[in-house]
Amino acid sequence: MARDLSLDHAPVSNLFSQPSNDAERARYQITEQQVEQFRQQGFLPGIRLLNAEQVEALRVELANLVQADHDGAELWYEYHSNESGDPSAILFHALGAWRIKPGMHDLLWNPALLEPAKQLLEGPVRFWHDQLFCKPAHDGGVVAWHQDYSYWTRTRPMAHLTCWIGLDDATTENGCIQYVPGSHRWPLLPTTNLAKGMDAILDVLTPEQRAEFTPVPCELKAGEAVFHHPLMLHGSYENRSPRPRRAVVINLFRDGTLSDSDKPLLTGVDVIPRGEKMSGRFFPLLP
């Protein structure tokens, strides 16, 4: 049985070097212009998070994790070998890789992730959960339009941040993430089925929102990331290319966020009673 790496609140490998002083940390920070771009548009693309060696290490781990009988499979919060259910539109989606593989675990302590996150959340950050999204060549399915916080209302206040990290070049052809700029100023929308069709969102938009619904693709190189706001409307279309489109998503929230549920916040996680601060083994404070 695999060791549960949620017990380790520090890196367990040497994949990501750690800054030893403020000057080294500052090398990973984004500019004030980039912070303002995030505030205005709701997303910030093109942030280099991984070098070639780190990309390859995570790809190797992922190749094992997509095998359903891998060691540590009991540690997942969720595991969908094909969330769409359609063999011609495959979407691998799983939560909890940080508990199983050292590289996926240590990604949380990557200063290239944490320094921008602290700037965008305006304070110390805690880990919420990770996600893996994989679309195979030719048959990769969609991720329907949604706002992340629609799935996260079991926490409050809304002080969350998503970081989408490409393990392949993400292009329009292979189903890169797409955004509706400015939609982070919209109110919370109802959820639709995450893996079955792109048009359902249109049924819940107002005429004004439909008029503003002009998606833009966010193409990234492998190892680059995009940060987005928890109300940002985003989704991705099919992969009809001869290349896979694999991504790791890290979800964070500002320290001080509270539980808003008396049920487990993730499958298998101890209850944090409503009104109590999110903390503990599964929601570590990141340096």
UniProtKB/TrEMBL annotation:
Q: Which Gene3D superfamilies match?
A: q2cbj1_9rhob like domain (2.60.120.620)
What InterPro entries does the annotation carry? Phytyl_CoA_dOase-like
Q: Please list the GO terms describing molecular function.
A: 2-oxoglutarate-dependent dioxygenase activity; iron ion binding
**One Pfam short name:** PhyH
User: So which domain of life are we looking at?
Assistant: Bacteria
Write out the entry's keywords from A to Z: Dioxygenase, Oxidoreductase
Which co-factors does it depend on? Fe(2+)
Q: Which PANTHER family match?
A: ECTOINE DIOXYGENASE (PTHR20883:SF48), PHYTANOYL-COA DIOXYGENASE DOMAIN CONTAINING 1 (PTHR20883)
Its recorded name reads: Phytanoyl-CoA dioxygenase
Q: What is the lineage of its organism?
A: Bacteria, Pseudomonadati, Planctomycetota, Planctomycetia, Pirellulales
